[in-house]
Design goal:
alpha+beta, 2 helices, 8 strands, 35% strand
C-alpha cells in the first residue's frame, strides 16, 4: 500500500487478520486518528468459527509505504481442519493489537 491508501473502511465486513510487516498505518474513527500501528502489530478480528463476522468500527489508512501479510478466515479454517492441534496455540498466542470488530480499549474510550 502507498501513503494515503485505505486498507479497511469503517463498516467493511471483516474476513481476515492483517499483520503489519513494514510501515505505519493509522486507525481513524469519526475523522479522528485514534492510534498508529507499525511493524509487528496486527489488526482485524480474532477469528472464531462459531461467531459471525462483524463490520469494521474504523478506517485503516497507510501513513507510509506498508507491507502487510493477510490471513483470510477461510484459509485459517482450512488450517484448523487439517491441523486441529493448532487451535490451542492460535487461541493462546495470537494477540490482535487492534480488533476492528469491537470497541477496543487499546487507545482509550472510542
Amino acid at each position: 500500500y502507498t501513503p494515503g491508501d485505505y486498507i479497511v473502511h469503517a463498516e467493511d465486513c471483516l474476513n481476515c487478520i492483517y499483520f503489519v510487516v513494514k510501515g505505519h498505518v493509522k486507525i481513524i474513527i469519526n475523522d479522528a486518528v485514534r492510534g498508529i500501528l507499525t511493524k509487528g502489530d496486527t489488526f482485524g478480528e480474532k477469528w472464531w468459527p462459531t461467531v459471525a463476522s462483524r463490520k469494521s468500527n474504523a478506517d485503516i489508512q497507510a501513513m507510509t509505504y506498508v507491507e502487510l501479510e493477510v490471513l483470510l478466515y477461510d484459509d485459517l479454517k482450512d488450517i484448523m481442519v487439517k491441523f486441529p492441534d493448532y487451535w490451542e496455540m492460535w487461541d493462546k498466542h495470537l494477540e490482535v493489537t487492534y480488533e476492528l470488530g469491537t470497541a477496543s480499549k487499546l487507545f482509550g474510550d472510542l
